[in-house]
Amino acid sequence: MSVLLQLALSFGMLSILAVGGGTAVLPEMQTVLAEQFNIDHTAFVHIYSIGQLAPGPNMMMVLVFGFQLAGLLGAGVVLLAFFIPSSLLCISTGRLWQKIGERPWRRAVQNALEPISIGLMCSGVYAVAKAAVVGPLTITLAVATFAVILLTRLNPVFMILGAGAVGALIMHFFGIH
After folding, report:
1. What percent of the chain shows pLDDT beyond 70?
2. For the whole prediction, is pTM greater than 0.85?
């Protein structure tokens, strides 16, 4: 199977599974990229981190995977495969939701989907943390960054950049690799 077709099928499937947003499919995306395309967890975390810092939707980072695997054409295939199916699903579901109105079972369905979406997003965070938090330094930086984000109104981008800079300085001065 060609790489482009494999990218289209893999990211199309991930698009349909992205209930609750792109973060919900991060564990499965990590697995697919590792098994089908030999992208290791460290590379995944690095690309994910860039996606968090870049302006715009953070899931645009999927284009980097497509570019790495098949150049500009690969990035284009991944763009269409990852965003078109879920967008069409959202549009059609939204229209159906409007037609249904305020029937009692609509609220029941929404209430059932909320914890599922939250759980899927948490599993995405766990998948990235498991690959990124690998020792005492990264644990300390992750906990400190999390605490500062919870206790202040600082923009998380500045916290990510600051933690990255502090980690790089510590690693440089202490020769940690």
Report:
1. 98
2. no
